[in-house]
Amino acid sequence: MTPLARDSAEVLAIEALSWLVTNEDLLPVFLGSTGAGVDDIRERAQDPEFLASVLDFILMDDAWVSAFCETKNYATDLPFRARGALPGGAQVNWT
Fold first, then answer.
1. What local confidence, expressed as pLDDT, does residue 1 receive?
2. What kind and span of H or E run contains 41?
3. 57-90 per-position pLDDT tens digit
4. Are the CB atoms for 64 and 26 separated by under 8 Å?
5. What CA–CA distance (Å, rounded) separates 38 from 27?
6. CA–CA dist 46, 67 (Å, integer)
7. What confidence tens digit (pLDDT) does each residue in 2-54 have?
8. Which helix (H) or strand (E) holds 28?
């Protein structure tokens, strides 16, 4: 599976963040699990490392991935591919 280009990955992650902040049930879970606050979201919305954490969070649950992708009409593998292009997303090769 090929990662997206970095710019495309960042755009997708910003869209994921926008989706997340409008989700009244999921946003508190994200804030609680990451320790981020609303101010952090505003200040770091274009920080590639923060955006990576948004995708990491959404990728923890297939239902969250599906819900996000359905709203954007994206293939469900797109967030995973985007994550691979952001900081810390390189796949480990154990060979």
1. 67
2. helix 38-44
3. 999 999 999 999 999 999 999 999 999 999 887 6
4. yes
5. 10
6. 22
7. 768 999 999 999 999 999 999 999 999 999 999 999 999 999 999 999 999 99
8. helix 27-34
pTM value is 0.88
- In the prediction, which pLDDT does 87 show? 86
The tokens for 61 are 């649950």
Q: What type of residue is 24?
A: E
User: How far is Cα 17 from Cα 90, in angstroms, rounded to an integer?
Assistant: 21
Specify the amino acid at residue 66.
S
**Exposure class string for 15-48: b at 16+ Cβ within 10 A, else e:** bbbebbbebeebeeebbeeeebeeeebeebeeeb
Asked if residue 27 lies in contact with residue 21, where contact means CB atoms within 8 angstroms, the answer is yes
